[in-house]
Each structure stands twice: as C-alpha cells, then as structure tokens.
Specification:
The chain has 188 residues and is α+β, with helices and mostly antiparallel strands. The protein contains six helices and five strands; from the N terminus they run E-H-E-E-H-H-H-E-H-E-H. The strands form two sheets. It has a three-stranded mixed β-sheet with strand order 1-2-3. Strands 4-5 form a two-stranded antiparallel sheet. Helix 4 runs parallel beside helix 6.
Length: 188
Amino acid sequence: MNSKPANTMFIVDEAYAEFVNDPRFRSVTPLIQQGADNIILLKTFSKIYAMAGMRVGYAVAAPAVISKMAERVAGEKLNYCGVCAALVSMDDKPFIAYSKKSIDVSRQMMTDVLKELKIDYLPSEGNFIFHHLSVPLEEYKKHMAEEHILIGRAFPPADSWCRVSLGTPQEMLVVVETMRNMRAKGWL
C-alpha cells in the first residue's frame, strides 16, 4: 500500500476488526491518517455493534477519495433511525465490551467442542467459525433445524464446510450439546 502502485486503490473491509485478538493485527486507519490516498477502509455497525438489521456502515479515506465516491452515490442510502442508532452505539463502551467478551467466550466454546469431536475447522477472529462436515450440508442443516438451530447457506466451493455464526454463550451451550448428540447419532 505504501508503494502506491499506479492506478491501484486498496479497499480494506474491517468489519470484524473489533473482534480480533491477534496482536499482529493492524488496521489501515493510521495509513489513512498519515495521508495515504490509495486506501478505502470499510466499516460496519452490523458486527460488534449488533446492528445488522439497520444496514449502516461507512467508508474512511482521504478527503479527495471520499469526494470522488460521493459523486457516484445514487441518492440517500441511510435511514434516520439507522444513523441515530449508529451514532449512539459508538459511545456505548459497556455494550461493545460485552459484545466482544460474549463472542470470545462463544468462539472458545465452539473451538473446544470441535477439538473434542475431532472436527477440522478454520481458526477465526470473527463472530463465526467454519468447520468441516462429514455429511452433506443439507442433511446437517435439516438435523440442526429439527433442534431449532438454523444453519445458513453454503459457501461454494467449500461445499463440505459449514459456517456457524456465534451467538451468546447461552445459545452456544445448546449448539455444542446438539453437536455432541449429533455425533453420537452419526449425523456429524
């Protein structure tokens, strides 16, 4: 990014940045603050702020880059309620800390059960975990739905993998126990 390759704009999505525990993580914010004019940082209120239904996010970039982006925006995209909620949520430090801790605990619960059941998974710094399935995804989804646990869509070409969004620790207790029961039945 610092080398400023000709005609190259870097778009960096830091939607999950607030969940990251890895000390090696570096935001691009300091580069933008130092004047980088080839970076657009995307942020959202959907993750750590738990406002997915409000569909509020923002971009951070050099003023000239923001001006060029503004020329191409077709009308107003944000609603008043979403903007107000987003502004208030930025100052709600106790909720942000609670949200982070909740996801950290839930992620650990999920990785513990995956290790216990000897199921391959991808390390995660977000509010979800991908794990490998030994049964077809649709079959897994069906059995989980019977236990009132909804599993989302496939992520082709990773068709033998399942993306599990992390809920509260109380919700994840139900998920991990269900996974243990499904393993005992040969469904996982």
